[in-house]
Amino acid sequence: MSNYLPTIGIEVHCELKTKTKIFSNSINGYGQMANSLTNVVDLGYPGTLPTLNKEVINLAIKAALVLNCKIRRQMHFDRKNYFYPDNPKNYQITQAETPIGYDGYVEIEVNGKKKKIEIEEMHIEEDTCKSTHRGDKTLLDFNRAGVPLIEIVTKPCMESGEEAKLYLEKLRELLFYSDVSDCKMEEGSMRADANVSIRKQESDPFGTKAEIKNIGSISNVKLSIEKEIERQAQLYDEGKTFPPQTRRFDTKLNDTVLMRVKETGNDYRYFPEPDIPFVYITDEQIDKVKKTIPMLPDARREKYISLGISEVNAKKLVGHRSLSDYLNELLEEKIDFKTAGNLLLGDISAYLNKEEKEMKDTTLTKERFMDLVNKVSDNTLTSKNVKEILDKVMTSEKSIDEITKEAGIQNITDNSAIIEMIKKVMEANPESVTDYKAGKDRAIKYLMGQVMKESKGTLNPKMAMDVLKEELNK
Amino acid sequence: MQFLDKSIQEIHDALKKKEISPKDLVEEAFERIEKSKNLNGYITLNKEEALKQAEALEQKDAGDNLLFGLPIAVKDNILTKGLRTTCASHILDNFIPIYDATIVEKIKANDMIIIGKTNMDEFAMGSSSRTSYFGAPKNPWNHNKISGGSSGGSATTIAARDVLFALGTDTGGSIRQPASYTGIVGMKPTYGRVSRYGIVAFASSLDQAGPMTRNVYENALLLNVIAGMDDKDLTSADKEQEDFTRKIGKDIKGMKIALPNYFRSDIVSEEIRKEVENTKKILESSGATVDYVDMKYLDKAVTLYQIIAMGEASSNLARFDGIRYGYTKENPKDIEDLYLETRKNGFGKEVKRRIMVGSYLLSGDNAKIYYNKALSIRDDMKKEFDRIFKEYDLIIGSTTTTTAYDLTDPMDDPSKSFMDDVLVIPVNMAGLPGLSLPIGFGKGHMPIGLHIIGNSFDEATIYQLAGFLEKKLNLNLDSRKGEENV
Q: Which residues of B are catalytic?
């Protein structure tokens, strides 16, 4: 197969996390009984008119801000006219002419190099209803009709499936962290289409485009792009051409499949929506929205690393929103963040997973957590101790001290007591002491084991080891 | 028992004194409707419900609500919960709405009683109500004549004096033109004055509902009820509540009135021009000034209207696809078949013609060439009206170019029907309020209407002038007497 330059553009539809729909006061919800979240407006009843949910505008401004878009100050909606059963009015209200956001970018890191993925535009529109095909019948669920969406369109600026994947991961993280959307691809609250074409070299015009629609996961976006590049390259290699087309990714075949060849002049008869007056966005409104944006993922990772958390753990924490939010409330405190990070990602995560709980469902207040972190970092508690008491720590209101006491943990942190114990062990095992001094490293492990046995596990191993070495080297 | 011929105040007093009850009024209205049945003013009657509602009102005090217990006819493109609403189309001839239009809620809240749904052009597309699936209504002054359109049924029932109140809608003259043809008072309020929620959309940026009545005062009373901002309609205007009757009876001395030369050009028949000139003289002798003015763009209004109205209509009527409500093709082969057959059989000829032209006007680059261009010239037209209203209080002209023509006149020239509305359409384009007032009769004793145009949200001054002229002219506008002349 010869070498080709792939060109990829991505369109993402993201459902906004609003209480109600964009043009009616129906609840915006997922997983409810079919057609239970609908009213006459969603159903496109005669005489109905759209209202405009202000929350949608604010969330779209927020999305535009985190995607570094310019924000249009005067905009309107347009009607996109086409007949389809999932389209109750047989027109969709969208923004064709005046997208709220434009000229933005998202920064990704490809093989250690930073790259800006340029965003052409971002607009607001309404979702269609969901159709389910049963035999020769089609069932329509209008719960989704009128759910607010933003569509984010990149320039054709990506060159590989990997870049597309990195872009989508970053996009998802940004929109999720700014509370714009749930970004759950499996529930359809984030959907991606990829436009793929290839050409021989940069000076050539773009090749024929294939659009892969509605890909169900980010990893499949990468895979489907790679497969599509392969397919197109093979055709070109064989001297063949193909028409512009729409394809889908078949997860069973692990390949893209033709849906339809694009008809020329797809005519949506766009015109300005006469039922919704122009929308004006002020600087004050933008500033107000700006203040609601929490610390974004990049900033969080940077901050964590600067506080002594390892890069791996910093990434893991940002991957776990509720833990990261929890930790963010402690950023001004003077605690050992490395230990805090380890605890959150280790025992606490394990506990939460096992119990299927969120941080907010536990009794671990910030104060008690800091107490725990301090006790671990100053060696008062061993990791074994933490495992022992964690269930209590997460469910009872008692102080860490009380819980420790009730669990019968009495760690010896008094140096003289430790020295005494160690001396006792050394006296009882003179051969091992001699072996150690003769350079036999194994001997110290044996002695350590004896020390821990003597203390019945109440010694901090690290501390005991330090003292033991000191005593042996005397 | 002829209470519906009495003045609104007399009826109100009789109701207050319990000399009559709302039920008597409803029964009287139905007797009259029965008598004038051949006029075909109604598509659906609401007798049972109306009587029930009237009975429920027996226990209630009328207070100072002059409209309490009075029957009202509602144009059949305005949604009435539980009462069939057809838009005079086969595609909705089985459609029973599950909610009330905002203005219907308002008239119900004011204890008015809906007597029935009036005939109209199919989806309000036409100017003679002859595109109705249910046949055209007739003009009470001469049963061989049209009553105009699209609110022809509402005009017919008022002119026949079946009831005192009716609601119409006006996208390109559909209240004022039939009002003029039938000798009644019809007001198209400022765009945004009255909620459009629950009115089947024809051309969203032009549609406006308004009152149709036998006289000016009652017209203003009904506007009091239906006007007002509605959270469900983003194009409704946030204006303080006002009493539209407040200027009626006031003197017009010093009032400055413009009469555009286009409105008195030879597109208007001589008898009508003469009547308008007479009115001008009356106004001048009453202390008002009336100046002839030149106005740009008036002659372009019909073309612009066709582009905007048909473009919007083609999109608004897309929802009638047979899936969720209305007529549907049984056992379609596939979705394409469902769409095609439902719409082919469901819509009448004129509606299909407008959908096709509208779709063409919006397709591809046409939207920019035609629709967007039309919107921008429309802005210029609005500015031209603004220019006049800087100097003048009101603009007048005739409502129509001729009096009502024969029901049997050919319908094969589609552009003619638009030309019937050539004088009233500019008002929709500019979003202004306009009213038609009977000022005399032409050949065959057919009514002639004066068109009074006001500045944005200045309906009150229109009513002031209309009220003044109505009193001064003191015409006998009862078609039941006119009928004998035919």
A: 75, 150, 174
